[in-house]
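Please, does this match?
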Amino acid sequence: MTKFLLAGGGTAGHVNPMLALAQSLRSQDHEVRTLGTKEGLEARLVPQRGFELLTIARLPFPRKPSGYALMFPFRFAVAVSQVMKMIKTHKIEAVVGFGGYASAPAYLAAFLARKPLVIHEANALAGIANRIGAKLTKHIAVAFPNSDLSPAALTGMPLRPEILDAVAGYDKEQARLELGLNPFMTTLLVTGGSLGAKSINEAIIASKAVLNAAGIQILHIVGDRANLDEVSEPGYRRLAYCDRMDAAIAASDMAVSRAGSSTVSEFAACGLPAIYVPYPVGNGEQKFNAATVVEAGGGKLVADADFTAEYLATELIPAMSHSSSLRRMSEAAKSVGIPDATERLRDLVLAAVNTNTRD
């Protein structure tokens, strides 16, 4: 049995793969603790999964001169010291990081404590914490083959096992019935993530009648902050949040979504073709997340500004109107999906520990 500290948090892209690995390691009787902040998503999700969450202060890297920037080196040193104490107190034998605010101090603490360090990068363009951490270890795993972290092992994105297991065993018509949809109608899944996507929501709502006329029903997940009422009518069901994403994926023939790393990886592993509309703000990593599956023919990429009712009428409807085309896209998506990503990452982590032990 090995005692692990898994560090990461802030967003689902950091927390979900961390929890997937934690569950896999625990299933093999390893001892797992996690490290995050009190403000991040991990503060809610980690305890729900039955893992202990150790916390340090939230320390974003400063991007311009300020009082915070002057104090940052001292606060960072304190955080590193705190993690080193945790490593000693809990007799941690290896550290695995997933990026986010808690990771950078954990990376330096593991290096200073001479513990094996493994880094997993979820996005094709690495965040600053993982770019720094990659200089401290040779054990690096990435979710996408076009990652800018190199050299690295392609493990894929650890996914929730309930998604993969349920989708594989679901009957499409049964999944549609459970979601209140027509079991025999071609189905489009629309999701902009937990916060929603205003441009996607508006284009879909404006196109309901046109899509329905083309024989396409819509399962529309608008996001908790969209401030749109739930609607259930023939050919259209709107939800703020869907806690049955396994059924939603199984029920659908195509999806429209942002291109977050977890979403792209889940859709590809399940063979769900998608129109990816990358988030237009930030460093543009989402378009690179979707690049591999799009190049394989398992999805299409459209800019946020170009995702309009006209695009839906001229591009999406024709793509969904031919079952043979959907089948080819599904097979292409699956060809680049990595359903065993959790096991791949776990094996890499255990190999890193064994290598360090021999050294």
Remarks:
- Residues 186 and 199 are 23 Å apart (CA to CA).
